[in-house]
Amino acid sequence: MARKFFVGGNWKCNGTAEEVKKIVNTLNEAQVPSQDVVEVVVSPPYVFLPLTKSILRPDFHVAAQNCWVKKGGAYTGEVSAEMLVNLDIPWVILGHSERRALLNESNEFVGDKVAYALAQGLKVIACVGETLEQREAGSTMDVVAAQTKAIADRVSNWSNVVIAYEPVWAIGTGKVASPAQAQEVHDELRKWLAKNVSADVAATTRIIYGGSVNGGNCKELGGQADVDGFLVGGASLKPEFIDIIKAAEVKKSA
Ligand SMILES: O=C(CO)COP(=O)(O)O
């Protein structure tokens, strides 16, 4: 089974209701490849999820940027997976490096969240990636493997998982990984899945790249054999997100 190109827009902690309406209007008017070619998911802050979902074109979907690790209850400030399911929010981003770094989310905690969210019926964009220090120390693959292992240890069905490889040094820095650097890690990650999970999971799980993706670099990155799409931050708030969605076409001609 071919891996369908996946383009996620992570709006992070940005926007007002007016800005959300403006971004969604731009997306709604865009001519993009069909759902058979590309799966598009945008991820607004929690408070804008219902608004976004209610006005977004039906061929695009929404994701939350996080959810609680277990069933809801006395967890002030948290939003549970059950609540997302209740509002028909199909996707959730988990383990983003900003949460790992700023909120001390450990590999195990992220793995627990992924398992719980999947068990509730959510689809998960699970983020992994090394810091600059770790890359320079030559430990990129050890770090990414440990992050992925904590998920693999807790998850048996991978059909609703997309892995986002997001090198921390490339996020919001304008310093994008070269296509070769991205391909190298995606290839190793796929080999890791083949060895530690199964050949089938390795062949079918989408591994998308995130970190300073923009309208100018998306085609070359997307043309790499093991890059199955993107998780886009800054550029997902701009009209160039549409060009990034269109990069899905590089796979058709590949
Ligand atoms: O963190 C990211 C997506 O989750 C990437 O952010 P930028 O595209 O702004 O570098």
Main attributes?
254 residues; TIM Barrel; alpha/beta; binds 1,3-dihydroxyacetonephosphate; 12 helices
Fold and architecture overview:
Homodimer. It is an enzyme of class 5 (isomerase). Pathway: Carbohydrate biosynthesis; gluconeogenesis; Carbohydrate degradation; glycolysis; D-glyceraldehyde 3-phosphate from glycerone phosphate: step 1/1. One of its GO terms (cellular component) is cytoplasm. It is found in: Cytoplasm. An 8-stranded parallel β-barrel has the order 1-2-3-4-5-6-7-8, surrounded by 4 helices. It is 41% helix and 16% strand. Strand 3, helix 3 (81-86) and strand 4 form a beta-alpha-beta unit. Helix 5 packs parallel to helix 7 and helix 7 packs across helix 8. The chain is globular. The chain has helices spanning 17-29, 49-55, 81-86, 97-102, 107-119, 132-136, 140-152, 179-196, 199-204, 218-222, 241-246, 249-253; strands at 5-10, 38-43, 60-64, 91-94, 123-128, 161-165, 206-210, 229-232. The protein has a single domain (5-253), classed as Aldolase class I (TIM Barrel, Alpha-Beta Barrel). It is α/β, with parallel strands linked by helices and 254 residues long. It binds 1,3-dihydroxyacetonephosphate.
Domain unit count = 1
Q: From the alpha carbons, calculate the radius of gyration and give it in angstroms.
A: 17 Å
Q: Give the helix tally.
A: 12
Oligomer: single chain
Largest sheet: 8 strands, parallel, barrel
The CATH fourth-level homologous superfamily: Aldolase class I
Our measurement of the CA-to-CA distance between the termini, rounded to an integer number of angstroms, reads: 16 Å
CATH class: Alpha Beta
Strand tally, please?
A: 8
Beta-strand percentage?
15-25%
Give helix and strand order, one letter per element, not per position.
EHEHEHEHHEHHEHHEHEHH
CATH architecture: Alpha-Beta Barrel
**What's the mean pLDDT score?**
97
Structure ligands? 1,3-dihydroxyacetonephosphate
What CATH calls the topology is: TIM Barrel
Q: Which consecutive residue ranges, at least 5 long each, have pLDDT under 50?
A: none
